[in-house]
Amino acid sequence: MRDSRPQSIDILFTVLATPERQTLQQIQQRAMALLKLNQAVAALLPAPMKPWCRVANFRQGVLVLETANASWMMRLRYEQSGLLSALRAQILPSLSSIDIRINPTLATKGHLMTQNSSDRQKKDRGEVVQRRRLSPQSAEAIRHLAARSPEKLQKLLERLAGLAGEGANPTRRGK
Fold first, then answer.
1. Which stretches does UniProt call biased (Basic and acidic residues) (predicted)?
2. pLDDT tens digits along 119-168
3. Domains of the chain, earliest start first
4. How far apart are CA 158 and CA 54, in angstroms?
5. The model scores a pTM over 0.90
6. How far apart are CA 46 and CA 127, in angstroms?
7. By C-alpha distance, which of 13, 17, 18 is closest to 29?
8. Where are the alpha helices (DSSP H) in the chain?
9. What are the DSSP calls for 73-92, one per residue?
């Protein structure tokens, strides 16, 4: 009879050592090293930059950082020399340079992180966090505009007007 109890993934990496699993173990170790490096870099960055930057890779003495857009890239370049010297002193003595690249997907993640953070701060202060809602008057104005619009735009405007008063109700949005 087979033993089908849940097992820790570490057991798969260490006990069952075959050439394929050694590759998996190397990937896991590299991912863990990059996560720790990302945490160290985030600790050295100024607070406003943390959601917008992350470690992408470290190879041949070059640390590759990703940032959300060109403006964050410029701000990170101002911090680059201090970051380089701090990382050399604390973690990576073999670090020769830092390469900064733009990754637009970080823009959406960073925006969500900062929005959630500000909402959390408002809740901690006792403030009510309100999301924007479309008023019934605005919905009526949009429907009036949709009546005079081309068919494709008309459908989109009517869909937008249908969101009035719903707030964040996900059950009605797909209809």
1. 119-130
2. 666 666 666 656 667 788 888 999 999 999 999 999 989 988 888 765 43
3. 10-107 (3.30.300.180), 133-163 (no CATH)
4. 40
5. no
6. 26
7. 13
8. 9-14, 19-44, 70-90, 105-124, 136-147, 151-161, 170-173
9. HHHHHHHHHHHHHHHHHHT-
> CA 145: distance to chain centroid?
37
Both tokens of residue 134? Answer: 């479309």
Name the token pair of 3: 């033993």
43 Rama sector, left if φ>0, alpha if ψ -120 to 50, beta otherwise: alpha
Among candidates 90, 43, 89, 92, which has minimal Cα distance to 64?
A: 92
The type of residue at 42 is A
Q: Is the distance from CB of 53 to CB of 67 less than 8 angstroms?
A: yes
Q: How far is CA 44 from CA 54, 95, 125, 155, in A?
A: 12, 15, 28, 49
In this structure, the number of other CB atoms found within 10 A of the CB of residue 49 comes to: 17
